[in-house]
Amino acid sequence: MHIPDGFLDARTAATAAALSIGGLGLAVRRARVQLPARKVPLMGLAAAFVFAGQMLNFPVAGGTSGHLVGGVLCGVLLGPSAAVLVISCVLIVQCLAFGDGGVLALGANIFNMAIVSAVGGYAIYRGLHRIFPGERGRLLAVAVASWAATVAAAVVCAGQLALSGTAPWSVTLPAMAWVHMLIGVGEAIITTLVVASIARSRPELLDAARPAPSRGAELLLFGGLIALGLALFVAPFASALPDGLDHAATLLGFAARERHVLAKAPLAEYHLPGVQSPALATALAGGIGTVLMFAIAWAMARLLVRAERNGPQPTEAPGA
Amino acid sequence: MHKHLLDSYGHLDSPVHRRPAWLKVIAALATVILLVVSPPSVILFAAVALILLIVAAISRVPAVFLIKRLVLLEPFVLGVAVLTLFQPHGGVRFLVVATRSTLCLFTLVLLANTTPFSDLLDVLKRARVPSLMVTTLALMFRYLFVLKDESARMRAAHASRTFTADRRHTWHATASVLGQLFVRCGLRADRIYAAMCARGWK
Q1: Is the Cβ–Cβ distance between A199 and A138 less than 8 Å?
Q2: What ipTM was reported for this prediction?
Q3: CB of A301 closer than 8 Å to CB of A143
Q4: How far apart (Å, rounded) are the C-alpha atoms in residues A26 and A85?
């Protein structure tokens, strides 16, 4: 989901950068208060862990392979502020040292993956874990949160692309959402397996992210930031009538594109007869997907926790 | 996928490498901003491409390496660019966006391979990025390679002890490697902290 440079217009990139700087400032301030000095090196190591973890591919159907993204995993293991810091650092290194993801798009990438995905995922995890306590509940919460956070980040990303005039919302939303509903399943499974493996060998590490006294305020602040991002990037399209779309494109596109859009607007509407329906269909699919994901998560939690009770897994801790 | 991403020519010696890092960062940023903000024109794209090629030639970073790196990252650009096809005049937009994005990518790849990462960190520090972040970035970059090797060793150890390549087991194995890697990260972080304190950190 790394947006390369050249896909976001200056306005969208600047807005996303402002939101990210706000989020990062908040994360650094919170982390300074919450983290004892001896935990500072852990931030760097965790970031290196996410980076190295993303290089471990595992086979998915049809010769393709997937890898961990790690946003929700970091949220669960380290807590929201530290996760924002860690994932942002991963994105910065990927961009500056390896050219993966754009430098102007860095703000948008940090907002989508470090803030929406990691903090949003952590919030969903906490909420669900409170409803479903116990070891199984934890795994269920992790699986659903990983999936939902991946999809949420993709939807915000689709909004940013549409707002930039790169492609219409009726294209970006279904494309991003559908692809990431599938990617999200992989992310959910691998994140759950990793959390289950850590819970088996070092359960005390999972309690490191227990709610600190100030965590409610922290989540509220991040929540406000995410809501602001949704209002800016997604809400303009939520009532995605064709003229609303054109209006947004005209308002936000820059000169050359503006002319283009104005001249071609009627044509564009004819080319997209059911602008509303793809968005509606995607929303519907999202709902069905959530239900399905709950089922998968429940089955996984049952399977993994029962397996643990009956003795160790056949493939445990290789090379340990 | 990221395998080749870990090589870098940041430590070569050339007129480009000798320029101060902040200058290169500002130049790269200016190039990207220019590409993104200005209306698409063939002349601009050609001019930027020419300048980048000249810089690449002076920097003595092997052309084969640069091409490989671009080919490796180009799928991500094209993957997003495909979205622009589904609209009127999609073909033209696709070409514009793909060209613009590729030039930005080339700029970033050149910056990364003409500037050591520690110099980039220095620029960030001077730009008043919070020290907690700079420390995290520095440690991350330092241990990236260590952890990559460690996970490769763990995978090799696992492969040498198992005879099945069943898909379900591969997922389980990857997950245990990741879980174990995280646990070891925690232990290593504690040792690093002790070492840092012993050397008078803070």
Answers
A1: yes
A2: 0.91
A3: yes
A4: 10
- Per-residue tokens: B176: 């245990």
Give the number of other Cβ atoms within 10 Å of residue B22's Cβ. Answer: 15
What is the pTM for the complete model shown? 0.85
d(CA A211, CA A79): 8
Is residue A142 within 8 angstroms of chain B, CB to CB?
Answer: no
Q: Chain-centre distance of CA B2, in angstroms?
A: 9
Answer whether A97 sits within 8 Å of B112, measured CB to CB.
yes
B168 CB neighbour count, 10 Å cutoff: 9
Buried b (16+ CB within 10 A) or exposed e, A140-164: bbbbbbbbbbbbbbbbbbbbbbbbb
Dist CA A315 CA B183 (whole Å): 17
Whole-number Å distance between alpha carbons of A272 and B89: 13
Q: Note the pLDDT tens digit of each residue in A138-169.
A: 999 999 999 999 999 999 999 999 999 888 88
Q: Does the CA dihedral A49-A50-A51-A53 come out positive or negative?
A: positive
Tens digit of each residue's pLDDT (9 = 90 or more) over A300-314: 888 888 755 554 444
A308: exposed, middle or buried (Cβ count in 10 Å: 0-12, 13-18, 19+) = middle
Cβ–Cβ pairs < 8 A, chains A and B: 292
- Cα distances (Å, whole numbers) of residue A164 to A106, A172, A246, B66, B98: 15, 11, 12, 29, 15
Asked whether the beta carbons of residue B133 and residue A28 sit closer than 8 angstroms, the reply is yes
B48, B2 Cβ separation under 8 angstroms: no
CA-to-CA separations, B146 to A171, A242, B188, in angstroms, rounded: 42, 52, 11
Positive or negative CA dihedral for A155, A159, A164, A165? positive
Residues of A in contact with B52 (CB under 8 A): none
Among candidate residues A94, A92, A53, the one with its CA nearest the CA of residue A74: A53
Token pair of A313 as six digits = 């897994």
CA-nearest of B128, B125, B130, B123 to B23 is B123
> Best interface-test mutation with A: which of B178, B183, B191, B201 has the largest number of A CBs within 10 A?
B178
Q: Are strands A65-66 and A58-59 parallel, antiparallel or unpaired?
A: antiparallel
- Per-10-residue mean pLDDT, chain A, length 320: 89 94 93 85 93 80 75 90 94 88 92 94 92 90 94 93 88 87 90 92 74 71 90 78 48 42 37 52 77 84 69 45
In the block, residue with structure tokens 């245990």: B176
Q: Which residue of A has its CA nearest to B94?
A: A166
